[in-house]
Amino acid sequence: MSSQRADAAIGAGNEEPTDAELQARDTVASGRGKPGGRKSGTPPERRLSLFTRFWRDKPLLLLAVPGVVLVVLFHYIPLLGNVIAFKDYQPYLGIWEAPWVGLENFEIIFNGDPYFLNALKNTLIISLVQIVFVFPVPIALALLLNSLLGEKIKRVVQSILYLPHFMSWVIVVAIFQHMLGNAGLYNTWARQNDFFTMNIIGEPSLFIPLITSQIIWKDAGWGTIIFLAAISRVDLDLYEAVAVDGGGRLRQLWHVTLPAIRGVIILLLILRLGDALTVGFEQIFLQQGPVGLEASEVLDTYVYNRGIVGGNWGASAAVGLVKGLVGTALVLGANKIAHIFGERGVYSTKD
């Protein structure tokens, strides 16, 4: 009846109904208070209780229990050991018997210990180089692999690129030493053919390019897995739409592929910033001998050399604690910046 009265009121004036009148008529006919609102008579959705959701997801939660236990045992409980950063810790005394020294162990950071400053400088330089030159390589490789038309060729190339990841750093460093060392294959060939020789492994000025090339060779192929997975989820209709508009492969890459994987790129970049002060202990420690500590000492090796070798456990723990806090701050800050630019980042408080 209400709808009929609305139609009669509109037709009485022999005028075309306005958009507002049509919207009002539809609202009255459908029984909605607002466009898009809940229909009258429909009961509101009831929020499930915590116990109900727990019981509903019980199989998934049980599957997650072993992983949670491992994380708690090997990641969270060991955090309690950071208390030695505030003690004069000695292994024969134990954590609880060691005397408290307050912030004395942090003096090497605040007073500018030259060895610590050298390690910090090298760490920041290596981290910056890795973000600029190493981080984009898996993205470029994923885009190139995605452009390969033959699936067999793509699988073969992927297998070749993935293989170095499964080698330990001991093997990788040994390979580079046999290739580029003073008595390596290159220098041996150069001496036999009267070419110039260069001990790349033992040259301090080439240490950063050397470890950067090693990281790219070892892990760049493995890093393409996540980006290839993200690219595979792109709707093929988007590529066809760009092609219909006359766009070639470059425009498809710029307007479809890169925007589709932008969230993954930002997520991994934020996580990489969290490890900005961790640049690889094993890789660098194995190559410190030929180049010396001046060029190769980083925070990870500084903690080892000063703590385990030098016996200054408290100061090393203080450096490690500050490094972890800085990494956490970088992740939180970068994640906040991602939210400002409309990206989800690592987590979102709106979820």
**Can you summarize the main beta sheet?**
none
Global morphology: globular
Low-confidence stretches: 1-15, 27-39
- Helical residue percent band: 55-70%
Q: What is the oligomer described by this structure?
A: single chain
**Could you spell the SSE succession in H and E letters?**
HHHHHHHHHHHHHHHHHH
Mean pLDDT: 82
Strand percentage: under 5%
- Number of E-type strands: 0
Structural class: mainly alpha
Number of helices: 18
Report on this model:
- This protein is an all-alpha fold and 351 residues long.
- Helices cover 66% and strands 0% of the residues.
- Helix 17 (299-309) runs antiparallel to helix 18.
- The relative contact order is 0.09.
Secondary structure layout plus pairing:
Elements: H1 2-12, H2 19-30, H3 50-56, H4 58-76, H5 107-110, H6 114-134, H7 136-147, H8 151-162, H9 169-180, H10 185-192, H11 207-232, H12 236-244, H13 249-274, H14 281-285, H15 288-291, H16 293-296, H17 299-309, H18 313-340
